[in-house]
Amino acid sequence: MQSQPSGVHYCRWDDSGRDEVHVAAAAPMEEEASSWGRISRKLCSGKLGITMKVLGGVALFWAVFILGYVTGYYVHKCK
């Protein structure tokens, strides 16, 4: 979940003929989002991030391998 950046949006293409200005405020949970952002950056970047991605890939490989093995066993099982 990403918070919308604060800023001003100006819209002059309105059917009413009036110009509109929308002001977006910063999200109130910005502090919580930044802590999740720090955890995400720590786990997904640098040497730790590479290690996590490699371990995740190996785990995914073995999960698919075992699922395929079990499925193949039951599909090709002799009657």
What are the key terms here?
2 helices; Small integral membrane protein 1 (Vel blood group); transmembrane helix; transmembrane; membrane; 79 residues; alpha+beta; two-stranded antiparallel ribbon; elongated; 13% strand; SMIM1
What does this structure look like?
This protein is of the alpha+beta class and 79 residues long. The protein has one domain. Helix content is 57%, strand content 13%. The chain has a two-stranded antiparallel sheet. Strand 1 and strand 2 form a beta hairpin. Helix 1 crosses helix 2.
Rg measurement, Å? 25 Å
Question: So how many helices?
Answer: 2
What do the pLDDT scores average to? Answer: 78
Number of E strands? 2
What percent of residues are in strands? 5-15%
Structural class: alpha+beta
Q: Estimate nothing, just give the exact number of structural domains.
A: 1
Q: What general outline do the C-alpha atoms trace? A: elongated
Query: Cα distance, first to last residue?
Result: 51 Å
Low-confidence stretches: none
Helix content: 55-70%
Helix/strand order, N-terminal first: EEHH
Q: Sketch the major β-sheet.
A: 2 strands, antiparallel
Strand line-up of the largest beta sheet: 1-2
